[in-house]
Fold this sequence. Notes:
- It contains twelve helices and ten strands.
- The chain is of the alpha/beta class.
- Strands 1-2-3-4-5-6-7-9 form an eight-stranded mixed beta sheet, with helices on both faces. The protein has a two-stranded antiparallel sheet with strand order 8-10.
- Strand 6, helix 9 and strand 7 form a beta-alpha-beta unit.
- The longest helix has 16 residues.
- The structure holds iron/sulfur cluster.
- The site of iron/sulfur cluster has 11 residues, from loops.
Amino acid sequence: MSLQKNGYLCQMGTALDSGIKGYNGYGIHLRDKYHGQRVFKVIVDGGFTCPNRDGSKGYGGCTYCNVDSFTPEPSRSTPNIKEQLRAGMERAKNGYRADKFIVYFQPNTNTYAPVHYLKMMYDEALSVNNEDVVGFAVGTRPDCIDAEKIALLESYADRYDVDLEMGMESIYDETLEKINRGCSHGEFIKAVELLKDSKLDLCVHTIFGFPWETREMMKGYIHEINRFTQIKFVKFHHLHIVEGSIMGAKYKKNPFKLFTLEEYTDLLCELIPLLRPDIVIQRLFGISDWELLIAPNWGLNKSAIQSYIDKEIERRGVVQGSAYNG
Ligand code: SF4
């Protein structure tokens, strides 16, 4: 299982659970790292916002985004972060025999606040079930990271594996403007450079399939990621359109071309060989609640999509890094 519809949990690592060896998947990475223990991410909503939502850089957020589409309902409806975590861990233990946890501040921009406030929030979350928490993951954007915030996150790195997840989304400023990102690719590079020699594990999130970007342009994302040795993880996402987003409203009026599962898999089979071989792929595609998804609806649940992609990778003999010439 991965992201639970109306649940709290992301179990790590569908990617290599199937035994596929064509790419470095998060499942095997975690199993190796934590000696076979079952590690689950438990999502916590700290009640943050984003600078392109609250007016400091814009309104409305990124045009493809509806935060609810990737925030489990119980986290949305439970303001107390300790309660969110206790309930999420309990559910993971009872339902999925979880051994250990990664506390995951996911919705919105989880470094978008003064450092003293961030510390208070992080400390509170990490005080829950301390002995079973092995990791701490924080999702953010490049313009909300600075040396002081990195130092705060690094202060947890002697007790936990700390994963800083940063949205790159696209490397093209024209795209970033069109999607109301409020942040340029230059700002992404600046943030990544701040993380050189950091104790944090940097994970970069990308979106493939903006209709005005060509396949060659998307291949450019991989070459850009490869340049930075501090990038340890990637999360790949196909563009999907969700209810409650600006893009969703536009799509309903004027639908545009989105990936079919076959097309997206074909793209992945071209991108994975280009990717630096040491990078671990946390995710190959995105998923949202059925009731929020407008398109593309591939008619399959998450494990079926994963299985389709994995089989195709295996059938084609795709090997991560085989076309990397860094
Ligand atoms: S994609 Fe991230 S930065 Fe953009 S509006 Fe959504 S939560 Fe905020």
